[in-house]
Specification:
Structural class: mainly alpha
Shape: elongated
Largest sheet: none
Helix content: 55-70%
Number of helices: 4
Length: about 90
């Protein structure tokens, strides 16, 4: 948990105190992780688009699909990927 807090840019001790005291002013750690994953996803998609457009993005998705053990998981991961354009 301490590493995850550090990687998410939040103070482990503040997070721990917040949740142990029951004040719960800070979101759950999973919310921080999910938010950061979305940011990384969008940043990567923007880089792919800037470099090679939709063709490179489709190629990357195809490559990823071959390494994911669950059918359709890449579709879930790629959903909303163009939201940087909004």
């Amino acid at each position: 948990m301490k590493k995850t807090c550090r990687r998410s840019g939040i103070s482990f001790w503040h997070y721990l105190l917040d949740h142990l005291s029951g004040t719960n002013n800070m979101p759950q750690l999973s919310d921080f992780v999910r938010r950061r994953a979305q940011e990384v996803k969008r940043e990567g998609a923007k880089r792919l688009n800037d470099t090679g457009g939709i063709e490179l993005m489709r190629k990357a998705q195809s490559e990823v699909e071959g390494h994911i053990p669950y059918p359709g998981m890449s579709e879930y991961w790629w959903s909303g990927i163009g939201s940087w354009e909004a």
